[in-house]
Amino acid sequence: MENIIKVKGLTKKYNNFLALDNVSLEIKKGRIYGILGRNGAGKTTIMKSILGLTFPTSGEIYIKGAPIDYKDKKQFFTIGSMIETPAFYSNLSARENLELFALIRGITQKNAIEKALDIVGLEINSNKPFASFSMGMKQRLGIANALLHEPEVLILDEPTNGLDPMGIVEVRNILIDLCRDFSKTILISSHILSEIEKVADDIAFIEKGRVVEESSMESIRSRCGKYTSYVVSDVYNSARLLEENYENLNYIVIDNKEIRVFELNDKTNSINRLLINNGIDVFQITTQNESLEEYFKKLTGGDGK
Ligand SMILES: Nc1ncnc2c1ncn2[C@@H]1O[C@H](COP(=O)(O)OP(=O)(O)OP(=O)(O)O)[C@@H](O)[C@H]1O
């Protein structure tokens, strides 16, 4: 599949602070790419680097196969963006705001404003001033503004930040429609896994400026394996017994009661017998599917927030 944006070995230092460390991403045409990471992980810095709003310390960025040239502003016509909360004139309506931005940006296509507002579901004839918009409407106007020049790619930084549940669903549906019906490629960021997983086709998980994992959601889901959970009287000795009796067994200790074993072949009976024969009480055995949250928690060894 064709890459529309490629980032290779991107590094960004602020004085001695390494905000991005050798980040590589491949954003494929016609798909939604989600950057997932905690606050401060480096998501905005990646987006700003692609947009020429900040300059990387080293690394390469390609837009439609051509190396990015920060002096050649035409390259950026390919992209529409919304970084941080969109700023609009509070006394103007959605249409009036977009008319102003279209004028400033030299956009002359006749129905550009109508089309953009229609896509995001805002009334073209409404006189409602921006000041009285809900957060969701503000965010949707921001997306419409990014769409005005009909870019192939949209870069949206935390587009669902601060929205109520209905607002989140609305933005999510707009993104899916843009991708499916208007063939846009979309790069979005979020610190909330459940939001990214519902829209993204591909995902990069960023932690402290590094890509911990880049993969398609399909592949991640298929890797979220089955596990068997053992609630036992002594996790420490249970773990020791597993180590001694099984080679390369994939397991984790959850807390002082539970061990999870990820297994391809069913070893439940033999593990149960091993534990009981060694004087360990097994209170409960259940087989479950690992959630995405658990999958990412394992990747970072952290609390998964
Ligand atoms: N202009 C700057 N000068 C110094 N440090 C910066 C600057 N911009 C960002 N940083 C630092 O770089 C790191 C990455 O910031 P970035 O904004 O890319 O993170 P983020 O993942 O987008 O998080 P958030 O969701 O909080 O914006 C943070 O530790 C931030 O404090």
Automatic annotation (TrEMBL):
Signal peptide: none annotated. GO terms for molecular function: ATP binding. It holds the Pfam family ABC_tran. Residues 5-233 form the ABC transporter domain. Keywords: ATP-binding, Nucleotide-binding, Transport. InterPro entries: AAA+_ATPase, ABC_transporter-like_ATP-bd. It comes from the Bacteria. Belongs to the ABC transporter superfamily. This is ABC transporter ATP-binding protein. It comes from Tissierella simiarum.
